């Protein structure tokens, strides 16, 4: 039997069994499946596998693990003691797994390499997950951001979910890509997810029109990312899958208050006369000007030269922006001074870094949308002690003012005739 036919048989059978396994608690299913999956994936590790061959092996592992898991009792010692903490609201972060005996960079490299190597659609996912910012050249670690403390932050994109998100409008670009972090605490490496449920609940105020589809979408994203971590790290020495709620839990009352507020400061610029027929060229010029005025890690001198900033170490986190669907663009901005202050509130907040600026064309103007830190801090950093939270409030205002100043200075530097 040819490999493609066998792959289809394995994948289809695994999918059928997985439907039945969904009646079990996720944390029991993931932990037991990881044991079986790790055993099978450990076979013939010296043989280079294509994406299809890896899918066949993974599917075969799923068949065995799901079949055995179906016979397990639905109560027992593997129950997650923390699951009740989200019953009254929406949690902001989840610890998806831990690794003992390895460094942050070793775990991040294993995860990044797996993400770029395999086609997740062969495993039944809606779309192939990509490491945002990776060009396909050199080490994928170049696309994984390093933040103070040696922690790593991943930006993950998926064309299927991006299309759903941006169908609500280009202003939703700030809600993507999806973020997770690899952090270290007391010798244990932890994989932390910024929950898509929290992000979508806050950024998609129009979701009431399609509430059920949006809820299904966020569940699907969360499950995909759990599976992505398991697929990437199962068999890696010291890895244990997990599902531990972390951070602030937003109650229904808080959610109502947050969704009544704007999550971004929008700056609108008219298209110059000499670019009326070349709008995309103007957009690219503005992006380049922002990167120049912010500087970036690959620049000869790092640290924004813009006068009037509260700190002098602002820079773009990447030398090129992240391009989403339909030429909507994300520029990630970071100040090590402010990043250190944010992480002192708890390293599980790392996936909320860095700050984001969205650039997109809308009708007859260019819009630059700056994520409002006065909105972000109370939501994703809502578990911060009161005294430290008061300091963060002042810091958030300075961060927002700095980002707006960099953008306005960059646009003003472009000499174009007014429309």
Fold blueprint:
Elements: H1 3-21, H2 26-41, H3 51-70, E1 89-100, H4 104-117, E2 129-131, E3 145-147, E4 151-158, H5 159-166, E5 178-185, E6 188-194, H6 196-203, H7 211-233, E7 239-251, H8 252-259, E8 264-270, H9 279-294, E9 315-316, E10 322-323, E11 329-334, H10 336-343, E12 355-362, E13 365-371, H11 373-380, H12 386-412
Antiparallel strand pairs: 1-6, 1-7, 2-4, 3-4, 4-5, 5-6, 8-13, 9-11, 10-11, 11-12, 12-13
Please write the string of helix (H) and strand (E) elements.
HHHEHEEEHEEHHEHEHEEEHEEHH
Oligomeric form of this entry? single chain
Distance between the termini: 66 Å
Strand-residue proportion: 15-25%
- The total count of helices amounts to 12
Radius of gyration: 22 Å
Helix content: 40-55%
**Class by alpha and beta content:** alpha+beta
Which overall shape is indicated by the principal axes computed on the Cα atoms? Answer: globular
- Rounded mean pLDDT is 80
Largest sheet: 7 strands, antiparallel
Which parts are unreliable, with pLDDT below 50 for 5 consecutive residues or more? Answer: 12-25, 65-86
DSSP, total strands? 13
């Amino acid at each position: 039997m040819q490999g493609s036919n066998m792959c289809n048989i394995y994948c289809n059978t695994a999918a059928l069994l997985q439907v039945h396994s969904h009646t079990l608690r996720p944390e029991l299913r993931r932990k037991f499946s990881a044991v079986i999956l790790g055993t099978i994936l450990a076979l013939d590790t010296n043989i280079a596998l294509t994406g299809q061959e890896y899918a066949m092996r993974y599917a075969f592992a799923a068949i065995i693990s799901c079949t055995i898991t179906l016979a397990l009792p639905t109560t027992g010692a593997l129950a997650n003691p923390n699951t009740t903490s989200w019953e009254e609201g929406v949690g902001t972060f989840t610890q998806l797994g831990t690794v003992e005996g390895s460094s942050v960079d070793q775990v991040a490299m294993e995860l990044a390499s797996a993400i770029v190597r395999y086609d997740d659609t062969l495993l039944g996912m809606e779309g192939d997950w990509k490491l945002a910012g990776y060009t396909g050249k050199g080490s994928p670690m170049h696309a994984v951001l390093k933040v103070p403390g040696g922690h790593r932050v991943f930006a993950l994109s998926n064309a299927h979910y991006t299309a759903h998100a941006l169908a609500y409008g280009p202003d939703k670009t700030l809600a993507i890509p999806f973020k997770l972090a690899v952090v270290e605490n007391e010798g244990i490496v932890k994989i932390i997810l910024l929950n898509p449920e929290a992000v979508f609940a806050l950024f998609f105020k129009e979701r009431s029109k399609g509430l059920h589809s949006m809820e299904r979408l966020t569940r699907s994203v969360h499950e995909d990312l759990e599976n992505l971590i398991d697929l990437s790290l199962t068999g890696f020495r010291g890895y244990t899958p997990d599902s531990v709620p972390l951070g602030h839990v937003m109650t229904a009352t808080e959610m109502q208050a947050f969704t009544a507020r704007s999550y971004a400061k929008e700056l609108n610029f008219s298209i110059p006369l000499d670019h009326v027929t070349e709008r995309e060229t103007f957009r690219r010029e503005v992006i380049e000007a922002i990167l120049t005025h912010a500087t970036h890690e690959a620049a000869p001198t790092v640290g924004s030269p813009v006068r009037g900033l509260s700190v002098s170490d602002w820079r773009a986190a990447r030398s090129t922006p992240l391009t989403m669907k339909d030429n909507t663009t994300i520029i990630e901005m970071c100040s090590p001074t402010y990043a250190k202050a944010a992480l002192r509130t708890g390293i599980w907040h790392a996936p909320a870094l860095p700050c984001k600026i969205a650039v997109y064309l809308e009708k007859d103007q260019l819009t630059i949308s700056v994520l409002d830190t006065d909105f972000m801090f109370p939501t994703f950093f809502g578990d911060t002690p009161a005294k430290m939270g008061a300091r963060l409030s002042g810091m958030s205002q300075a961060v927002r003012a700095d980002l707006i100043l960099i953008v306005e200075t960059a646009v003003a530097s472009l000499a174009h005739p007014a429309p």
